[in-house]
Amino acid sequence: xxxxxxxxGSVTRRIQKATMTAGRAPGSVxxxxxxxxxxAADLREAWQAGQRLFGESYLQEALVxxxxxxxxxxxxxxxxxxxxxxxxxxxxxxxHWVHSVDRLKIARRLSEQREARLPPLNICIQVNIDRExxxxxxxxxxxxxxxxxxxxxxxLNLRGLMAIPDPRATQQERDGSxxxxxxxxxxxxxxxxxxxxxxxxxxxxxGDLEDAIREGATIVRVGTDIFGSRPVQR
Length: 234
Ligand SMILES: *Cc1c(COP(=O)(O)O)cnc(C)c1O
Hints:
The chain is α/β, with parallel strands linked by helices. The chain has a single domain (4-227), classed as Alanine racemase (TIM Barrel, Alpha-Beta Barrel), CATH 3.20.20.10. It contains 9 helices and 8 strands. Strands 7-6-5-4-3-2-1-8 form an 8-stranded parallel beta sheet. Helix 4 packs across helix 5. The radius of gyration is 17 Å and the shape is globular. The structure holds pyridoxal-5'-phosphate. Residues 34, 36, 57, 80, 164, 205-206, 221-224 line the site of pyridoxal-5'-phosphate.
């Protein structure tokens, strides 16, 4: 069985290779270790191997781990799960990034509840890029309006877009979804020249990070290939 440190090493090499193959700048793609449903000891092991960015989907679970890992410097916490409005206050104070904002009500609450002494909360808009019926995320045609509104909120820094493509899609269809995400980000950059922080495409997971990087991903979110398969799916 390979260790978490070995796995981080091999995922990092996959990212470097894909970045180079795509002709993109070294270091332009970040690895977000998706640590939902993992014990704090696993995150500590990843930290010891040099990993600093962690993605969590369940607020209560994340808050417990944050306390357990308080002694580790430089951890950066990214919230990537569905957001209920009664959870925004704790998300706004505990996290550095939120990838899963898909409606204005949530963005407004996060901005109001982000303490002014903290730097602005980094935000990605989650896009339901494959128009799946039950999926979280706003539709592609709604992105521009939501992005415009978010750039006007004082305590948020709009960074870009996030998507989870339809898991049933073929590789070709998925590549198309990644490409439409890149087009959408470019469109936002052109339409919102004031939004200077708009540089992020959060897409690509364990099985498809190479394809996502080829199409322009700047953050890949990897769980299984770092920590092994999740014991319990919630
Ligand atoms: C769980 C999860 C991932 C990681 O998926 P793996 O297949 O385990 O790499 C990435 N993004 C989101 C939003 C997730 O919920």
